[in-house]
């Protein structure tokens, strides 16, 4: 169940990162509220997952889901640049997440 919590925590991290971008420096109330709620939920689910998962594994996977997810949202929703270097960086992050998951007992 900890992996499910961690996955949802990562998804909420993507949501709060996108909402932060949409808040325009916290000047828009709606996206700012979404960001705060998603952030609290993300941290709470991460903490619940850490009851059973090792710190290094949980934190690395949480940040990795957020980083790659935010990268994909940036490309698909915000029209950010797709370059070979950025794609290679995302692939390396995903490879690290897979290795971290495989190393967890």
UniProtKB/TrEMBL annotation:
Membrane topology: Multi-pass membrane protein
Keyword Transport: yes
Compartments where found: Cell membrane
InterPro entries per the UniProt record, alphabetical: EmrE-like, Small_drug/metabolite_transptr, Small_multidrug_res
Example of a GO biological process term: xenobiotic detoxification by transmembrane export across the plasma membrane
Keywords carried by this UniProt record: Cell membrane, Membrane, Plasmid, Transmembrane, Transmembrane helix, Transport
UniProt GO molecular function: transmembrane transporter activity
Regions that span the bilayer: 33-50, 57-79, 85-104
Annotated Gene Ontology cellular component terms: plasma membrane
UniProt record similarity statement: Belongs to the drug/metabolite transporter (DMT) superfamily. Small multidrug resistance (SMR) (TC 2.A.7.1) family. Gdx/SugE subfamily.
Protein name: Guanidinium exporter
Species the sequence originates in: Paracoccus aminophilus JCM 7686
């Amino acid at each position: 169940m900890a992996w499910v919590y961690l996955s949802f925590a990562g998804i909420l991290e993507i949501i709060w990162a996108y909402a932060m971008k949409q808040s325009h420096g916290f000047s828009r109330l709606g996206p700012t509220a979404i960001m705060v709620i998603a952030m609290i939920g993300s941290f709470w689910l991460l903490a619940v997952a850490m009851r059973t998962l090792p710190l290094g594994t949980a934190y690395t996977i949480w940040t990795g889901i957020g980083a790659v997810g935010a990268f994909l949202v940036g490309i698909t929703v915000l029209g950010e640049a797709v370059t070979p270097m950025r794609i290679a960086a995302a692939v390396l992050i995903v490879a690290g997440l897979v290795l971290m998951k495989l190393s967890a007992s």
